[in-house]
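Hi R.,

Here's the chain you asked about this morning:
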Amino acid sequence: MIWLLGEAAAESSESTKLLLALGIFVAVGALVFFWWGPFRRLVGRQEAYYDRVLRGSLLIDVSPRTVTLLQAAVMGLLGLIAYAMVSHVLAGIIGAAVGAIIPRIVLVMLRRRRLRKLEDQLADGIQTLTSGVRAGLNLIQAMELLAKNGIRPISEEFGHMLREYEHGMSLERAMANAGDRIGSGNYRLLISALLTHRERGGNLGETLDRIAESIREIHRLEKQIETLTAPGRAAARWMGLMPAAVIGVLYLIDAHDTEMLFTDDRGRLILLIILVMNLAGFLWIRRIVNIDI
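And here is the predicted structure, written out as tokens:
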């Protein structure tokens, strides 16, 4: 009798496990079915952004799908590392979230670095255009001179503009595309002046000289603003590093109580609040010292 009861209990346990597995399978299937469409749209928007930045702003021929797969790999890797370090599901989710934003941060940094180089090279590039025009070249030939003899990345931008023109696009449309692709007010100023010259005529050399002088003055003011706001940017960086330094000092003073910040739920909540407030202060200071002229 006892043997029969044990066998019945084992069969009941197996049935329970089977039903649980079936329920999990159905739940996962329903989740995939209802969220597959929004997920595909989200990935599509992400890849459209990658394509716009890589092939548009950076002029790098890299497939957006490659970046998406790399992003997924980084998310999984950081999620596993965070879960292994803290042994908490929330840590794994935070690690995966950090991995999701790393590619976008890298692209933003590359885009800003390229834009900074383009801004620094613009005045010299305009001087090259002016020299070509005064030597008897037309605007297209002066642009070809800059594309061949200029330094990267300004030579790449003008070369790309000329390739669009050679493939049948009007020069006005190619220059407008370049202004939208670069996203710089100084380049839009140059392009607007060139478009105005093509519509109304005039002395292109003098126009380019005035634009170059204006851009040099803008750069001088920007450098002056960077010098005046340097202490604020330094304060923001120190604020970002301060929590790690304080935790390190506390660990040297009292290691046991400091470890509770990472092992106890209340300690983790305190750390989360500290990180959020520190990030808010950092972004607030950066916004204050970011002056656009």
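One quick note: The radius of gyration is 29 Å.

Cheers,
M.
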